[in-house]
Amino acid sequence: MSGILYIDACGGVAGDMLAGAFLDLGWPFSELEKLVQALGLEGVEVREVYLDHMGIACRRIEVIAPPEQPFRGVAQVKEILSCLPEEVKGPAERVFERMSLAEGKVHGVSPEEVHFHEVGAVDAMVDVIATCGALAWLKPDQVVCSPLPLGRGFVDCAHGRLPLPAPAVLGLLEGAPVRSWVEQEETVTPTGAALVSTLAHSFGDLPQMKIKSSGTGGGERPSRLSPNIVRVIWGEGRILPEARQVVEITCHLDDQTPEDLPMVLDRFMKAGALDASAAPLYMKKGRPGLRVMVSCSPEKAEEMAQLVLEQTTSLGVRITRTERRCVPREIVTVESPWGPARVKRTRVAGLWCMHPEADDVLRISKETGLAPFMVRQGIISALERQEQKA
Questions:
Q1: Model-level pTM?
Q2: What is the distance of C-alpha 228 from the center of its chain?
Q3: Where are the transmembrane segments (predicted)?
């Protein structure tokens, strides 16, 4: 069974709300205080606030800091975060990197040129490390977030009056499911959007699981038509990866030169295909042939279908929409005995599955003369040693 954390953004999500929900779930407040102290920011303290939203008891965190705080870029923020434990620092850095990309796009500058205002303030740093610290404490195998409710209207900030959802929020939530909110008010802040879009493995409905505990966080804004809360639900279960829509393009060939096929398939992959393959088959009149299969995102369907017609001898293609489910994975780089090597890593049923990248195995095998299986074993052993030291 896998540990599943479900973020129920029933009333929106903000960093202080999410941190409060984890405290209500059981994450010790003393652990948050240690992380804040480790930042080394003079005069900065954090306290736990108890709230009531429409009869629902909840919590949030409040940051107490000197009134004059400098605007900081992502480099300065990452320097402050560098003193934290790796299991907190790494995710927190990814959150701020994502925010800098979104803010840079909004303002037409590079991520390095972004000087955070609200999202770079001390309270946002505390909100981010609180959520990352709570996740490091829980160690979930899967984090799933509900569709996010987006309010309309306007909000005043350092740049002036902005429409809601804030432009940075829209950028951060590209690809995430959203729904309309009943009132004109800010329901999802940039920090909240950055946290869930960076740290959640998928978005969707509450997965099938056995609930073990839950916590509720509340916002500073008073509730009106609906409670201003976010809930975190912790449980155990088996969860299928998120279903994603894909397009499969197929064609049958009986006059394609076989030696050209590897080049054609490679061209499909470089053009953005998710997968490209070929299989032998017998066609009409008993003629041997090939079935070429290319899968891609729906947005690339027309482009990829045209490419298949251009690069093969086919006179027509079949286009089918279907679903694709993939286990969440990541690429990590390890210092192997033969230099840097990449490893594809995923977690299935609570166990890590590691597979060194074939291109790196091939390169090292050619350079050293070692058998591929020996290179793979050496890379995996190096990764295990690297993680034990961390």
A1: 0.67
A2: 25
A3: none
Full set of structural domains in the chain with CATH: 2-237 (no CATH), 243-325 (3.30.70.1380), 329-389 (no CATH)
Beta-sheet pairing, 210-218 with 148-150: unpaired
Q: Residue 2 and residue 25: Cα distance in Å, rounded?
A: 18
User: What is the DSSP annotation of 114-162?
Assistant: -EESTTTSHHHHHHHHHHHHHHHHH--SEEEEPPEEE--EEEEETTEEE
235: left (phi over 0), alpha (psi -120 to 50) or beta: beta
How many other CB atoms are there within 10 angstroms of residue 175's CB atom?
A: 8
β-pairing verdict for 160-164 and 153-157? antiparallel
Q: In this structure, what token pair is assigned to residue 298? A: 């729906």
Structure tokens at 196: 């869930």
Query: 86-120 pLDDT, tens per residue?
Result: 999 999 999 999 988 887 787 677 666 665 554 44
Neighbour tally for 342: CB within 10 Å = 18
Distance CA 52, CA 58 (A): 6
Calpha distance 387→390 (Å, rounded): 5
